[in-house]
Amino acid sequence: MAPPLSGTTPRRGWSIAVVLIGVFVSSLDLFIVNIAFPDLERAFPSAGLSDLSWVLSAYAITFAAFLAPAGRWADRAGRKRAYLAGLVLFTLASAACAAAPSLGALVAARTLQAVGGGLMLPSSLGLLLPLFPPHKRGAAVGLWSAMGGAAAALGPPVGGLLVQAGWQWVFLVNLPIGVAACAVGVWALREIRDESSTPPDVLGALVLAVTVGAVVAAIVQGESWGWTSGRVLCMFALGTLGVVFSAVRAVRHPAPVIEPAILRIRAVALANVATVLFFAGFGAMILASVLFLTGLWHHSVLRSGLEIAPGPLMAAVCAVPGGLLATKYGNYVVGFAGSLLFAVGGVLWATATATDVAYVSAFLPAGLIAGAGAGLALPSLSGAATLPLPPERFATGTALVSMCRQVGLALGAAVVAAVLGARPDLGAFHTAYFFMAVCGLTGGLALLGIRDSASRRVPVPVAQGAAPR
């Protein structure tokens, strides 16, 4: 057994860089695709907003469904192997997205891209945390979260620039980054696996995808189909049956998608609930802001990207200090403060914006406040959901919280598509921003229930003994 790379070595530095690049690319893709939404509307004029929303939702749903099985498989087969396989698939699927001749083909390619991201993300934190000594792992979580914040900050302006050459370039940009990261990762990363881990629950993952997909479809199509129509009621019923099936299977399967043993840890369970709520608001904020600036204020995609960027940049700046503050004061304190600021930003957007352009006095202040709140909340959510677990369960715990994140994003985008699809006027945008604020506040209240239990590692009665190889 080789010693962990927790010292200061060139190989350790390259390992950290490769892992963070993967997190950055997968997060960058989310924000770039959002800013490309108006161009996608023009590229596929026969598709409505509800149809186009599946470019976002299909990715989020598939990503969510595969995260937990991928985390389990990463623990069993090796985190390096899972990470690099995901990075390769993500890169190839990005090329397929750029070459998609129709909306259906684009959604299918996005689904494959999500499978790659689902393999890559849970392995990333599982590879990163062992590279840091225990007393610095809170900062490592903050650094991991900061990559998402940096991608969020760069995504809108970079996406705005890329779509000037065509929406395909928001996917092609992933190719050189993915190839370079794969080449370095083969050499730098070290394998970590838990050979006693049991096989993942593939059926449970498929049921989860169908469950979330049914609920998202019901929300997105509710206005056009009719909220009391047979199709919408069947979608909600299918989602309910999926939840029941997943709960029963979680108890009976040796390696379920959602492990009851992990969720018995109060801090972990509450952190995952908070993550779903917070990211529902986050997903609503992203899509609503892009459509507000391009649709209601009629700004160009490039200008809108630049106008959105300060908020995510603030999130990136606050993420690492947020991780350090969470280590000192507790995830629930810092996470609640961040969620509250995020909600305040939503309320300001909902009350201060109007049809008349007022970027500096109305849109920008709300974006900065919401961005600062997100920067404080994100590392606390990730830390509360993973740090109480033993090291050999980091990948599985990361998969679970990332799954909740994607479920929240899908639900948030679905709500915005439903609200704006009916009547995309100022009142509808204000409703979307109020929804964002409510989600942020309830997510913060869920974090308050953690207290300081989030800082205590609790043994999990599942597979033990991950060994670096």
Automatic annotation (TrEMBL):
Alphabetical list of SUPFAM superfamilies matching this protein: MFS general substrate transporter
How does this chain sit within the bilayer? Answer: Multi-pass membrane protein
Extract one GO BP annotation from the record: response to antibiotic
PROSITE patterns reported in the protein's UniProt record: MFS, SUGAR_TRANSPORT_1
Q: Which residues form the Major facilitator superfamily (MFS) profile domain?
A: 15-455
Chief place where the protein resides: membrane
* UniProt keyword Transmembrane, yes or no: yes
This protein's GO cellular component annotations are: plasma membrane
> Transmembrane: present as a keyword of the record?
yes
Family matches, as Pfam families: MFS_1 (PF07690)
Instruction: Tell me where it resides.
Output: Cell membrane
Q: List residues traversing the bilayer.
A: 12-32, 52-70, 82-108, 114-132, 139-163, 169-190, 202-222, 228-248, 269-296, 308-326, 333-352, 358-378, 399-420, 432-450
Q: Which GO terms describe its molecular function?
A: transmembrane transporter activity
Q: Which keywords fit this entry according to its UniProt record?
A: Antibiotic resistance, Membrane, Transmembrane, Transmembrane helix
The protein here is known as: MFS transporter
